Amino acid sequence: MKKIVIRAGKERSLQRRHPWVFEGSIARGGADAGETVRVESAEGLFLCWGAFSPLSNIRVRAWSFDEAQRIDATFFQQRIAKALAMRTRLPIASDAVRLIHGEADGLPGLIVDRYGDTLVGQFLSAGVERWKVVIIDALMAATGLSRLYERSDVQVRELEGLPQQTGWLRGEGETEIIIQEHQWRLSLDVAEGHKTGYYLDQRDNRKKFADSVRQYGCKSVLNCFSYTGGFSVAALAGGATEVISVDSSAPALARADAHVRLNGFEPGHHRSLDADVNATLRNFLKEGRTFDAIVLDPPKFAPTVAHAERAARAYKDINRLGLRLLAPGGLLFTFSCSGGISPDLFHKIVAGAGLDAQVDGYILDRVGATPDHPQTINFPEGEYLKGLLVLKAA
Q: With bands split at pLDDT 50, 70 and 90, how would you rate the model's confidence at 306?
């Protein structure tokens, strides 16, 4: 077994069971991509077993902090079984669920979602790539399913020295799937959709939005960065009679229109707008438009803390415009999915937007990802999605 020695004083994060070892923390040692290594302190004390990644800034991702643990097929079978067992205890109102959520499930770099009878996997680190066949076999056995599609087509693979890959790993057939979420039906294409096909992490927030639209009597709703219209369907379910979905993807908007019809809502109550969100918000301000509720769910502006300052300006700008467009007593449901933006910083950004817009609001709720996208005590970086439900002061 190859050994990695940590610089003196750099072992504390591993002793707190944080699963990452950065390049600058390593005194000596190396291995092949994905190879299992023994990580020791400068004094020779065992810290963890991990997967080595010679090209990544995160040089080691911890598999286990138990010195007696063997990293073999049984290890992966047990980790997958544990993750699936946890999901059975969660109140998931859908036949689509995240089964494996990387570090939070003790499998760094592995994402697996289930859409009905189909699994979709992302192998994002050198470690899980090296063990891919073993992991696939364990997944198929644990779920009893026969279809697994790979969506390892993200740039983070390149940081690991891995090529992007997509396609069927097990089974074959149609990639278009219809799922049930709460009382709605939604369609997706696992080969083409964002992430693994859909944003499952917003499932409960879409239901909360539907309930809030109903509770506060919101009739006009603006859904920005709408993608395929999940929040738009929620708004219509909540009783809205004018919903505008804004996105820069025509195919996503076409699917949003299809979702309106699929769920039996009046097509005339929904309009898709293929346009830039910032320009659209400014145009609505010039027209003197207001809305009873606005959703701001932008893409990731800050993938890391290093991008936080630039991202903060972008988040502040769209929230300032959104708050100005809200009618008095209107609802703003605003999100950041950037890991580089902490919940505290996001609150400060929205507060700054309110000052610039010269409006105040009441925070009705703070939300995050659905519980099948778990965040653990020892891995705070897992809290990537954060949102605020704000009631604009009258």
A: low
**pLDDT tens, residue by residue, 65-124:** 999 999 999 999 999 999 999 999 999 999 999 999 999 999 999 999 999 999 999 999
Q: Which residues of 69-81 are buried (b: 16+ CB within 10 A; e: fewer)?
A: eebeeebbbebbe
Burial of 199 (C-beta count, 10 Å sphere; 0-12/13-18/19+): buried
Cα(325)–Cα(291) distance, integer angstroms: 6
Asked if 337 is an active-site residue, the reply is yes
For residue 145, give the nearest of 102, 112, 192, 106 by alpha carbon.
112
Cα–Cα nearest to 229, from 245, 215, 240, 250 = 245
Residue with tokens 């400060």: 348
E strand intervals along the chain: 2-6, 20-22, 26-28, 36-40, 46-52, 58-64, 96-101, 110-115, 118-123, 147-152, 165-170, 176-181, 184-189, 220-224, 242-247, 270-274, 291-296, 326-336, 361-368, 386-392
Secondary-structure breakdown of the chain: helix, strand, coil percentages, each rounded to the nearest 5? 35, 30, 35
**C-alpha gyration radius of the chain:** 22
Burial of 275 (0-12, 13-18, 19+ CB in 10 A): middle
Q: 19-42, pLDDT tens digit by residue?
A: 999 999 999 999 999 999 999 999
Parallel, antiparallel, or unpaired for β 326-336 and 386-392? antiparallel
Q: What angle is formed at CA 274 by the lines to CA 270 and CA 278, rounded to 5 degrees? A: 105
pLDDT digits (tens, 9 = 90+) for 205-221: 999 999 999 999 999 99
Please give the structure tokens belonging to residue 22: 């950065």
